[in-house]
Specification:
Radius of gyration: 22 Å
Number of helices: 3
Order of helices and strands: HHH
Shape: elongated
Distance between the termini: 68 Å
Largest sheet: none
Strand content: under 5%
Structural class: mainly alpha
Amino acid sequence: MPWQRATEQDLADFRDWRCRAPENPEQIGGTKWNREAAAFMKLFKWGKVYPLPVDVSRREDRAADSVSARVSWLTPRTWGLLSRVPRKRQAC
């Protein structure tokens, strides 16, 4: 079957295999599934496949056990404060 004719059930079966099937020796976690689902969604949008068989904006298509990497960047003000903190010199 061509990928352009994938259905929601096809993606649900694939997700079950990737994440939960005991026969699969290389199961993946929720974070990896979310990345794969997002890639599939982009592929289906690019291929103009509608309705989308997977859509990460739908709660049921995202993994509940996903862990988000919350990256926080230093603001210029914080960097300025940290750069003025005196450091202890280490003995050689």
